[in-house]
Amino acid sequence: MALNAIGEVDMNSTIATIMRHRSVRHFTEQAIEADKLEQILNCALAASTSSFIQCTSIIRVSKPALRQQLAEYAGGQGYVASAAEFLVFCADFNRHQQIHPEAQLGFTEQTLIGAIDTALMGQNALLAAQSLGLGGVFIGGIRNNPQQVTALLGLPEHVLPLFGICIGYPAREPQSKPHLPLSIVVHQDQYQQLDRSALAEYDQHIREYYAARSSNTKQTSWSEHVKAALSKESRPFMKEYLNGQGFSLK
Q1: Closest by Cα among 140, 51, 43, 57 to 91
Q2: pTM of the prediction?
Q3: Tens-digit pLDDT profile for residues 106-137
Q4: If you placed Cys at 158, which of 56, 81, 93, 165 could pair as Cys (CB 3.0 to 4.6 Å)?
Q5: How far apart are CA 166 and CA 136, in angstroms?
């Protein structure tokens, strides 16, 4: 990697787009041009897919009443209703069953494949949107009420709504949240134990980040955030829902 005169890594446009990532939750009322939306969707379709199974469907939700209901199901996230576009990304093996009625479905590996392929498509879509001057945010909150989302969107068996993405023109530019450093995330040849000194430094970085924010300031570290998040059961109804939709049965 080449360093420029002020010590920063030179970046091409793709890397620059990735590194500028922000979760945008406030949007203007400007609609997304049809050609830009088509580009975003085509970029989603260009993502890698396991064994060329192509097991993802995208539901573009345009009706205001549906949007409002989804915003409530997602935990009262108003930007689901206000964003120019809201796309629901689903793992989908129903399409394959229509092609091959005797398809062997319900395997846990298929759940993993569906989740991975769908996440890759979602990331492609958001990066494409950001490269076009748009912003967005992933909405995992649709899994708060999966049965209601399934009914609202008319999802048949073997279709699993994994997340939504709000996309639109940003009304404000949020700050970048510092992620874990390479020294903690990247392991050499074998798994290595957590570097506590690196973690302490990152925790302090997060405290300073929250303290410096102009709104929604917090007094917490990343380690404290992890303890709070993982000290309770998350969506305990999910296994039953997955089984009911024909996923992870065996």
Answers
A1: 57
A2: 0.92
A3: 999 999 999 999 999 999 999 999 999 999 99
A4: 93
A5: 5
